[in-house]
Amino acid sequence: MPGSSHEESQLSPLPLFFYLVIVLLLAGCAGEKSLVVLLPEDGKATGEVTVVNSHGSQVLNKPWQSVEIPGGDAQPTVPAAMDEKAVHGVFAEVLTAMPAPAVHYILYFKQNSTILTPNSQLLLPEVLKAVNKRNPAQLSVVGHTDTMGTAEYNYQLGLCRAKTVTSLLKSLGAAPAIIETSSHGKADLLIKTGDQTAEKRNRRVEITIR
Question: Is the pTM of this model over 0.85?
Answer without folding.
Answer: no
